[in-house]
Design brief:
The chain is mostly helical. It is 60% helix and 0% strand. It is elongated, with a radius of gyration of 36 Å.
């Protein structure tokens, strides 16, 4: 076949075309991006990979690189003020809301955003969602976030904005506000909590009274009452404390329960502490403690009467609160009654005879 010039030329053309195709394939293989990048294989763990590694970026085209660059600018980052929301941020948040039509999923997403310490983004999400849906639960999570971190001013600001956007607070909203005013749930130091300011006490009482108004959508329950009583007790505002107690019914819905009586007994004992009696003389302080013990005994008789009828549940916290009130006194009889209290409430027998019995020798101990 190589004797004819035409056949030889045709054969050479076929070989040249095949070689050209193979050459183009090989050139593409040699220019493959991942082969031009230095090898990053190593024997160490993957934790040593630098976070800013650009491995794989060579595969992206120009449009993908622009999208990746925009994605690196995370909305609501920590470099910008929390109140600054750009047009790009709102556009991204609206896109998120399109995929969060389910109220449960939306609430879970708000919780996740708050766990990531992005309260500004969570607040903007609930603002946008409030235009088209009721999302009271999501607003409650934002309120609870600020209350847990000891920022009641921010929590009340969110609460007021919530009402302006036609998102009606529910019972849990008021519970979060009242419970948060009693003190932050997240303890950041080992120091004891400071006394609640009079401003916080006024906020709690005003909020509780607004719930009791005739036009209120949510009526206060005993849980709300216990929360506001705790705020008044920690704020040393006993006038507001007893003013709220005076309006409670004896029986039925809203009547005092075991937690209410525990708060009352703890408030009585708190008023006999060093901070409350430091400006009094020793005799005046002694009289104050004796009055507190007498008041606690009167309340305990009411508790026992309701306990025997099944209206109040007896628990360890309630019995311990009464025992601590008895230990405030300087009388031996009051101290001895702690053992009788344990026997009465927990059926644990005394290991020593009672004071005044022939078996108990207390002649060497002053009784007063």
């Amino acid at each position: 076949m190589f004797e004819c010039n035409v056949c030889t030329l045709r054969c050479l053309r076929a070989l040249a075309a095949e070689a050209a195709v193979q050459n183009r394939h090989h050139s593409r293989l040699l220019l493959t991006p991942h082969l031009t990048i230095p090898s990053q294989r190593r024997a160490a763990s993957t934790a040593a990979v630098p976070p800013a590694s650009n491995q794989g970026n060579a595969y992206l085209n120009a449009a993908q690189l622009r999208h990746q660059t925009q994605g690196d600018v995370i909305p609501f980052d920590h470099d910008r003020p929390a109140t600054e929301v750009t047009t790009f941020d709102k556009k991204a948040l609206r896109k998120e809301l399109e995929w969060l039509a389910d109220p449960v999923k939306f609430t879970e997403h708000i919780q996740y955003t708050l766990r990531c310490e992005k309260p500004a983004k969570a607040l903007e999400l609930v603002r946008l969602a409030s235009k088209t849906r009721q999302c009271t639960v999501a607003w409650n999570h934002v309120v609870n976030y600020h209350m847990q971190r000891g920022r009641p001013r921010d929590a009340f600001a969110v609460y007021n904005e919530m009402k302006k956007r036609a998102q009606f607070p529910d019972s849990y909203t008021y519970m979060l506000l009242l419970r948060g005013l009693a003190g932050p749930r997240v303890v950041t130091s080992k120091k004891p909590p400071k006394t609640i300011s009079s401003e916080d006490v006024s906020k709690a009482v005003s909020l509780y009274n607004s719930m009791s108004a005739p036009n209120s959508r949510v009526k206060p329950s005993i849980m709300h009452t216990n929360a506001v009583l705790k705020v008044c007790a920690f704020g040393n505002d006993m006038d507001a404390f007893y003013g709220i107690l005076a309006n409670l019914p004896e029986v039925g819905a809203g009547a005092p329960d075991h937690m209410t009586y525990s708060i009352i007994l703890n408030a009585i004992r708190r008023n006999t502490g060093y901070e409350a009696l430091k400006d009094l003389s020793p005799r005046q302080a002694l009289t104050k403690r004796r009055q507190a013990v007498s008041e606690a005994r009167a309340i305990w008789r009411e508790i026992v009467m309701k306990w025997r009828t099944g209206a109040v549940r007896m628990d360890e916290e309630l019995a311990s609160a009464m025992a601590r009130c008895l230990l405030v006194s300087e009388k031996l009889q009051d101290w001895d009654d702690v053992l009788s209290l344990i026997r009465q409430t927990m059926q644990i027998e005394r290991l020593v005879p009672e004071v005044g019995s022939p078996e108990r020798q207390i002649g060497h101990v002053p009784t007063d």
